[in-house]
Specification:
This protein has about 160 residues and is α+β, with helices and mostly antiparallel strands. About 30% of the residues lie in helices and about 15% in strands. Pathway: Alkaloid degradation; nicotine degradation.
Length: about 160
């Protein structure tokens, strides 16, 4: 089937099998490999992207379901001049990553969290990130990164 999906601000039109998952469309068809495949069961959140501005786990969305919609991946957050998105910059500043595997999904989930709640508490950030797993960091620096990106006090 043919799908037309706006990805990171540009229109893509591709033929895909009807069972193609959005994560595989992004990685295999478009070459946007920052969206990671971690579990295929919605458990880890490594594949989190924004679909029409809402965070979704792209391992459970068919490319056909995204037909006619907007998808943003972590590659789409970077500005035209290469400047980092405030959440990306905060993750770097606060050392919100170690191995980096979960980082793209964490960043995309964090962008969505801040769109819904621009000034969350540390506890609200922790609760909102429950669907994204990190096996390395213990989350402290990830939460601090979200707090920095929100313009609030980092320590807490």
């Amino acid at each position: 089937m043919k799908v037309t999906i706006e990805v990171n601000g540009r229109s893509t039109v591709e033929e895909v099998e009807d069972r193609t998952l959005l994560v595989h469309y992004l990685r295999d068809t478009l070459g946007l490999t920052a969206t990671n495949v971690g579990c295929d069961t919605t458990s880890c959140g490594a594949c989190t992207v924004l679909l029409d501005g809402e965070s979704v786990k792209s391992c459970t969305v068919l490319a056909a379901q995204a037909d006619g919609h907007r998808v943003t991946t972590v590659e789409g957050l970077t500005g035209e001049g290469g400047e980092l998105h405030p959440v990306q910059r905060a993750f770097s500043n606060q050392h919100g990553l170690q191995c980096g595997f979960c980082t793209p999904g964490m960043i995309m989930a964090s962008v969505s969290i801040l769109a819904e709640n621009p000034k969350p508490t540390r506890q609200e950030v922790r609760e909102a990130l429950e669907g994204n797993l990190c096996r390395c960091t213990g989350y402290h620096n990830i939460v601090s990164a979200v707090m920095e990106a929100s313009g609030q006090e980092v320590d807490g």
